[in-house]
Amino acid sequence: MPVTDVQHDLDSLTLTITADFAAPVERVWEVYADPRQLERVWGPPGFPATFVDHELAPGGRMNYYLTSPDDEKYYAYWDVTDVQAPQRFTFNDGFALDESFTPNPEMPESAQVYSFADAGGATHATFVATYASAEALQQVLAMGVVEGASAAINQIDDLLAS
């Protein structure tokens, strides 16, 4: 399993997931740069993602939804703030109200930093989410973000091997 560590810190308002992939940084980067590849791993198993918009560039927007086994759709977005291919990208990640991808003010938004470092031909990845408050972080923890994100990240190995 690629996920090697998960830490949440209510004082620093962060959730940090680290993972190691048996593939070069450039190959791992392609997973995020290609919406069709990203769809195969973004949602946890049983909740496939569909990216409606995908612009991995500063100022870009990525709109997507997850579909549950009961065919319910959960809408979300990324507002991309910085891209330094293939080492890192940053974005604001939020929940949307519906297919209009309007931010849902009832749900927390997080600032995300995804970093990829060469580990001798493999990739060491660090995924850091920072929330505005301890309450916001606790809300997503209660929703199962650790389990869902870990399960999604762990799917990347199969994609890299294919």
TrEMBL record:
List the SUPFAM superfamilies hit by this protein, alphabetically. Bet v1-like
Task: Name it.
Answer: SRPBCC domain-containing protein
Give the source's domain of life in one word.
Bacteria
Could you say which protein family the record assigns here?
Answer: Belongs to the AHA1 family.
Entries under Gene3D superfamilies matching the protein: 3.30.530.20
A single Pfam family, by name? AHSA1
Native source species: Nocardioides astragali
The chain positions of domain Activator of Hsp90 ATPase homologue 1/2-like C-terminal read 22-160
